[in-house]
């Protein structure tokens, strides 16, 4: 085949597209909240901010109070909405939209994990859809490693318990603050499991459609840092340096990218979305369940190019090659499973009351039907981890 007949699906090595998101700036470092947030207030022109967060973070820690204090000092504090639940139920988003209207706020500050950050994006999406005009500025201050702040989509749970996603290139936050000191109150299990979610991003970006090679190389470094610093952070949970390293690794795992057209997530994420929304399993835990087995399946089903990207991870993990691409991928799968165990995060579907007879339906929803030839193998994949 001549070069003139190649298209994007033939090879991501030599043809593709890349553009940055609407992100105006990202500040990182312990203690950066106090200096970074005022700079964003000035650059984004916000006069009154609505904080969107979760109930536990608001009532059990002083993290949100610190953000409120900075906003108050600069005369930009509006109010705080803290009724965003896990997986961002749409009822909370509706209530938040009304709070936004009532407060007269002209910008949003999301504080917490993936649920409040995605909820903030969903609020912005629905308000813009209703009224048009400029997209509201959004500054994300994450306290987990879920990496929701780097995407242009927002995931939430509808009234029937299904995962729903809305997407717009303009939904990416305009500002991000990675202040590791604000993560010290994050529960260990949540911190470490969202680190596995970041690992899931990094691994799946090695074979996800439309991801350009430079981003894949960033994912290799993310993998190396996540494998190194997650166990260190577990051993020393108050070590701010380790936590800051992990926040940067999470950033590299899902580098802000504006795709020319929608790029679907990988199989581990697809399964996790359906399991998480329906059975109330935290997304970090779904990654612990599905990522290792999905990588093992890719050793058989992935394209040759995707296999080579996956196998290349061993070099960055400072592990020797086994001698074949497929065996290297299986070794990567094994290393992921061992990391889950080392972090104390091993679980199974029985613990979350997932009925075994419901597995084919979960897979059918994740794969948008049964036409994919790998459908039976993915069903078996979940059945194998049912009581692992």
TrEMBL record:
One of its GO terms (cellular component) is mitochondrion. Residues 27-179 form the Alcohol dehydrogenase iron-type/glycerol dehydrogenase GldA domain. Pfam families: ADH_Fe_C, Fe-ADH. This is Alcohol dehydrogenase IV. It comes from the Eukaryota. The lineage of its organism: Eukaryota, Fungi, Dikarya, Basidiomycota, Agaricomycotina. Keywords: Oxidoreductase. Residues 193-373 form the Fe-containing alcohol dehydrogenase-like C-terminal domain. The keyword Cell division does not apply. It comes from Heliocybe sulcata. InterPro entries: ADH_Fe/GldA, ADH_Fe_C, ADH_Fe_CS, Alcohol_dehydrogenase_Fe. GO terms for molecular function: alcohol dehydrogenase (NAD+) activity; metal ion binding.
């Amino acid at each position: 085949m001549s070069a003139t007949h190649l298209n994007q699906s033939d090879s991501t090595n030599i043809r593709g597209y890349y553009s940055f998101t609407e992100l105006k700036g990202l500040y990182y470092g312990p203690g950066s909240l106090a200096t970074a947030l005022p700079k964003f207030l000035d650059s984004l022109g916000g006069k009154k901010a609505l904080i969107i967060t979760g109930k536990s973070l608001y009532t059990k820690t002083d993290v949100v109070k610190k953000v409120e204090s900075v906003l108050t000092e600069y005369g930009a504090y509006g109010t705080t909405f803290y009724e965003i639940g896990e997986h961002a139920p749409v009822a909370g988003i509706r209530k938040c939209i009304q709070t936004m209207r009532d407060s007269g706020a002209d910008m949003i500050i999301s504080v917490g994990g993936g649920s409040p950050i995605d909820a903030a994006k969903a609020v912005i999406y629905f308000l813009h859809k209703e009224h048009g005009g400029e997209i509201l500025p959004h500054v994300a201050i994450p306290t987990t490693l879920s990496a929701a702040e780097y995407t242009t989509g927002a995931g939430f749970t509808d009234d029937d318990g299904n995962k729903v996603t809305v997407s717009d290139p303009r939904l990416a936050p305009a500002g991000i603050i990675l202040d590791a000191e604000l993560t010290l109150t994050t529960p260990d299990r949540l911190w470490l499991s969202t680190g596995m979610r970041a690992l899931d991003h990094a691994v799946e970006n090695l074979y996800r459609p439309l991801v350009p090679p430079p981003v894949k190389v960033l994912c290799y470094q993310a993998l190396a840092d996540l494998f190194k610093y997650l166990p260190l952070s577990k051993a020393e949970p108050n070590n701010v340096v380790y936590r800051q390293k992990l926040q940067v690794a999470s950033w590299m795992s899902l580098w802000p990218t504006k795709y020319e057209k929608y790029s679907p997530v990988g199989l581990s994420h697809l399964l996790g979305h359906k399991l998480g929304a329906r059975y109330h399993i935290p997304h970090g835990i779904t990654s612990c369940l599905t990522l290792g087995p999905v990588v093992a399946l890719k050793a058989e089903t992935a394209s040759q190019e995707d296999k080579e990207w996956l196998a290349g991870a061993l070099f960055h993990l400072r592990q020797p090659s086994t001698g074949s691409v497929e065996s290297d991928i299986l070794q990567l799968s094994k290393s992921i499973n061992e990391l889950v165990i080392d972090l104390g995060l091993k679980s199974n579907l029985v613990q979350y009351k997932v009925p075994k007879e419901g597995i084919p339906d979960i897979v059918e929803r994740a794969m948008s039907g049964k036409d994919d030839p790998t459908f039976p193998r993915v069903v078996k994949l979940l059945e194998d981890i049912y009581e692992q």
